[in-house]
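Lecture notes, part 5. Sequence design as translation. It can be helpful to think of inverse folding as translation between two languages: the language of shapes and the language of residues. The source text, in structure tokens, appears below.
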């Protein structure tokens, strides 16, 4: 019996169920559920891998149930029942998968390795195809998010040498900042046919993937339940169960077709938030302005001018809550009560003033930590309220970490959010997370990884409760910029900070790739037109110095940085001349007019991914016959060419409307004569039918 589901094909035969195909590729029957139980024999010397585990070949078919876009496959061994739960999206191009593992042994068992799904015989290629199989990973770093690196399997160490090696293309992200080193996604390509598989792992804590050789071909395994690399193990009593994290696979005849399926999946799980439906532009006074030291007087000076830009929200970032100086504030945070020093008339008076200017008000918080010198909260909380390792509170960056498995923590932080929303008048709350506590906790856990996973689940359950309770508030997910760009988190939050990059000239290298990391309707990008670099000495923000140093092209460049995502306007834009301020207003309007298109569009990268150091960045969004394309010149002045790969019926410069550059188009190639370095333009393209 053959069962087709999405782009996957299974065969039930001789008491087994096996995967026999993906996309247009047919393979010999392969197991797809792997499980290693402690003390059970792994029938191979390859114990570092996620294949040939103790239960894989012992699992026998029990049943399958197909209902709509959901398929549940049940198998069992003598020790466990494994239910593989699959859902299809995007007309079957994308399939999500996780395993539910039930102890059916009659005694305690310990799980050591339980990948969410294993796809074997990738593209049905033999080991000799290592030079025609390619893998793209996406590197992460503070101020350098979403940087792709593409290499052949051969270059990465997988090649035909023996029938099965110990080598792997492997990455293990360990800790609570889930995307600090890599994004939990990757793309595998068959260069001979152009076909591609994109995978993604939705984990709120540690995660891993591995590509390696098996049975004379290659396989992909991914998940979060791994003893070898993540310090994870899980004890189950008789009848108890464990659910793995979700892994998503999207197949296409090209990289961008595969990503289209993944984009549709992400839109299916994105949370609904009524006040965020129109993707409002935000002003946040942190970047190149207040930094960690906001104050009532400055807000009242800024807000009337900021309202004239057209943004809908004004966010007060870190510093509204403590009396210490901004450069000394972090060891003391945790109580989240208004600062009388900075807001002498009360924070509510300030947020009410923001509303009187026609905007809504926002506040920042770091809800998972308490500063190591915050005596009030250290006296209030019990030791059990903190995440601990080896009996000690974990301290990183002058912060302790709260354990949301504790009711006292959840109660106080729920009261805190209520205070921010109801007493202080926050219509928008930015959740930040600036440190990582590492491998996990052994408190109330069988292993460090098990404890870390449980803490993350408890925190995200609390986030779900909060977003339901305060449905009129927009909640932003931030982690020192883009250190939590995973969809375990982004299925809970309306939008996410993508970077804390402070140099506007470098942001295109991040913004140009973001659509492969985060939905454009969720990807918040800083735009700080009055950001000063190389000015020498301390920049004093007055009208004369601002307009002497800030050119119209710098304003334009900054605004275009944010067009493909969510605009987070910042800096002293109130000090710009009328003409430059007009460019801000025009840019906010363009951003807002893109809303409905953005929510239905897909990535368009005519030059492929960009990297730091490229002299030209071109990135856009496409839907139907329309494309919006941002082009940034990062090199010297002169003619720069973008081959769009499409037949163009019309080409229009959307921003700025008063374009002074010479722009031509011929046979799908756009020729832009840039007059200087760090210059950008934003286009609308209509394709020929």
């Amino acid at each position: 019996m053959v069962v087709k589901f999405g782009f996957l094909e299974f065969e039930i035969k001789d008491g087994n169920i096996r995967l026999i195909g993906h996309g247009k590729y047919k393979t010999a029957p392969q197991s797809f559920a792997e499980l290693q139980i402690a003390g059970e024999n792994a029938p191979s010397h390859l114990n570092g891998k996620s294949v040939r585990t103790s239960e894989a070949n012992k699992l026998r078919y029990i049943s399958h149930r197909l209902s709509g876009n959901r398929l549940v496959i049940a198998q069992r061994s003598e020790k466990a029942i494994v239910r593989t739960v699959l859902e299809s999206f995007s007309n079957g191009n994308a399939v999500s998968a996780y395993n539910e593992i039930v102890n059916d042994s009659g005694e305690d068992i310990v799980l050591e390795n339980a990948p969410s799904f294993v796809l074997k015989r990738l593209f049905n290629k033999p080991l000799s195809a290592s030079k025609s199989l390619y893998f793209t990973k996406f590197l992460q770093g503070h101020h350098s998010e979403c940087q792709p690196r593409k290499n052949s399997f051969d270059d990465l160490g997988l090649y035909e040498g023996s029938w099965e090696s110990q080598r792997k293309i492997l990455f293990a992200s360990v800790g609570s900042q889930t995307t600090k080193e890599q994004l939990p996604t990757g793309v595998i390509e068959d260069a001979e046919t152009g076909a591609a598989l994109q995978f993604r792992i939705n984990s709120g804590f540690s995660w891993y993937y591995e590509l390696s050789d098996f049975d004379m071909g290659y396989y992909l395994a991914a998940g979060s339940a791994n003893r070898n690399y993540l310090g994870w193990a899980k004890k189950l009593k008789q009848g108890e169960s464990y659910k793995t994290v979700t892994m998503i696979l999207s197949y296409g005849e090209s990289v961008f077709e595969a990503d289209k399926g993944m984009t549709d999946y992400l839109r299916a799980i994105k949370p609904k938030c009524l006040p965020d439906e129109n993707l409002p532009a935000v002003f946040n006074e942190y970047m190149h302005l207040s930094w960690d030291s906001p104050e009532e007087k400055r807000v009242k000076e800024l807000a009337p001018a900021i309202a004239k830009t057209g943004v809908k929200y004004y966010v007060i970032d870190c510093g509204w809550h403590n009396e210490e100086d901004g450069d000394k504030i972090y060891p003391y945070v945790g109580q989240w009560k208004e600062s009388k020093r900075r807001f002498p008339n009360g924070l509510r008076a300030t947020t009410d003033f923001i509303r009187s200017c026609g905007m809504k008000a926002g506040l920042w918080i770091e809800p998972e930590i308490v500063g190591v010198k915050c005596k009030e909260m250290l006296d209030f909380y019990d030791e059990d309220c903190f995440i601990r390792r080896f009996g000690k509170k974990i301290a990183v960056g002058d912060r302790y970490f709260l354990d949301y498995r504790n009711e006292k923590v959840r109660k106080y932080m729920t009261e805190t959010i209520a205070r921010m929303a109801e007493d202080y008048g926050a219509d928008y709350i930015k959740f930040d997370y600036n440190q990582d506590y590492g491998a996990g906790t052994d408190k109330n856990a069988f292993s460090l990884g098990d404890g870390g996973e449980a803490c993350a689940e408890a925190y995200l359950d609390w986030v779900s409760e909060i977003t339901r309770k305060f449905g009129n508030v927009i909640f932003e997910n931030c982690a020192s910029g883009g250190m939590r760009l995973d969809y375990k988190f982004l299925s809970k939050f309306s939008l996410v900070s993508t970077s804390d990059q402070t140099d506007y000239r470098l942001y295109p290298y991040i913004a140009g790739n973001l659509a492969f990391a985060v939905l454009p309707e969720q990807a918040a990008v800083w735009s700080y037109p009055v950001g000063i670099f190389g000015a020498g000495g301390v920049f004093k923000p007055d009208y004369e110095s601002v307009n002497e140093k800030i050119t119209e092209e710098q304003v334009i460049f900054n605004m275009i940085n944010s067009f493909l995502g969510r605009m987070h306007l910042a800096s002293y834009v109130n000090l710009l001349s009328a003409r430059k301020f007009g460019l801000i207003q025009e840019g906010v309007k363009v951003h807002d007019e893109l809303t409905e298109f953005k929510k239905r569009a897909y990535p368009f990268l005519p030059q492929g991914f960009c990297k730091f150091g490229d002299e030209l960045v071109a990135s856009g969004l496409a839907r139907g016959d329309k494309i919006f394309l941002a082009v940034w010149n990062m090199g010297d002045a002169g003619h720069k060419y973008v081959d769009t790969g499409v037949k163009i019926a019309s080409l229009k410069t959307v921003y700025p409307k008063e374009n002074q550059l010479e722009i031509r188009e011929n046979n799908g190639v756009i020729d832009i004569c840039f007059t200087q370095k760090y210059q950008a333009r934003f286009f609308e393209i209509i394709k020929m039918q």
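The translated text above is only one of many valid answers, since several sequences can fold into similar shapes. The mean pLDDT is 97.
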